[in-house]
Amino acid sequence: LPGALAIYQRAAELDSKNARIFSGIGYVQVQQKNFREAVEAYQKAIALEPDNGDFHYALGFSLAQLGEDEAAIAAYQRTTQLDRKHLNAYFALGAIFSRQEKYDEAIATYQQISTLEPKNAKARELLGIMLLQKKQFPEALKVLQQAISLAPKHSNTHVSLGVAWIHQGNLQQGLNAFEQAAKLDPRNPKLHLQIGKILQIAEDHQDALESYRKALSLDPKLIEARVAIAEIQLAQKDYLNAIVAYRQLVELAPQDPEIYYKFGLALQGRGRNEEAITAWEQARDLYRRQGKNKEAKKVEAAIRDLQ
To answer: Tens of pLDDT along 30-86?
Structure first.
């Protein structure tokens, strides 16, 4: 890449009116993650060839990498003015609007892609996600079902569909969607985590534990799964296993007061009151440091009752 850049720069000295040379410089700078230099190169290319949509798109990409969203949006919008069917520019616009939480603008952008290319499953999936963000659940459900009909093997779409069903109050359909996603992407620990959550809400604790353990087997660092397992064991009064689980959690998340509080509950359940008080004192102190005085008082009351 440095050699290619040197040749392009020499070419620019020989022919300073060739927009393609500056575009080439911009491309090499992007590959080297020198986005500021890439912006300068693409701006020179555009000055020489202002109606080239690809140049504006590349400029938008470089600006977006620098976090200059408004300038990137302007570049992408210019791209779509020059090339009405430049789908990558529309997708890039949608991504920036989503990042800025401008969901209406993102929805309009993805709808435009769907108009240009009705069978574009990705556009419908992203449109569905934006509708979920707007809490327009029936509309999201319809769009996500359309996306799945176009691309039935895209696991992420099934996940989004599951979320839509859950928000519609249909846990079983949500679970079905997550399970389909897990079949398509069986080594994704977060899918098994979500399945576990639904089963836990449905009070199917045994299957929930199985799903959480599957998630942990795929990602041992997934603390959320460990927390859920410990909570189920505590709720089932399986205090011995809950103690083991919470002991591991306090090592993994030593600044989480809720874990210390529940660790104390598990210890209390086994009659290990002194250890429970020690855990609760730690929880109380952490709550106080975090300014959560209501929670700190709750723990203080538990300590007094046990003493």
So the answer is: 999 999 999 999 999 999 999 999 999 999 999 999 999 999 999 999 999 999 999
What distance in Å separates the CA atoms of residue 143 and residue 138, rounded to the nearest whole number? Answer: 9
CB 212 within 8 A of CB 180: no
Spell out the residues 6+ positions from residue 25 whose beta carbon is closer than 8 angstroms to its own: 5, 8, 9, 12, 37, 41
Distance CA(156)–CA(255), nearest Å, equals 32
AA letter at 275: E
**Residue length of the chain:** 307
Name the DSSP class of 303: H
Q: Which residues neighbour 148 within 8 Å (Cβ) at sequence distance 6 or greater?
A: 154, 157, 158, 161
What CA–CA distance (Å, rounded) separates 106 from 102? 6
Rounded to two decimals, the pTM is: 0.75
What sign does the CA torsion over 168, 169, 173, 176 have?
positive
Q: Express each pLDDT in 238-282 by its tens digit.
A: 999 999 999 999 999 999 999 999 999 999 999 999 999 999 999
- Give the angle 111-117-118 at the CA atoms, nearest 5°: 75
How far is it, in rounded angstroms, from Cα 29 to Cα 22? 10
CB 227 within 8 A of CB 259: yes
- Measured between alpha carbons, how far is 69 from 75 in angstroms, rounded to an integer? 10
d(CA 188, CA 185): 6
Four-residue CA torsion sign, 247, 249, 252, 256: negative
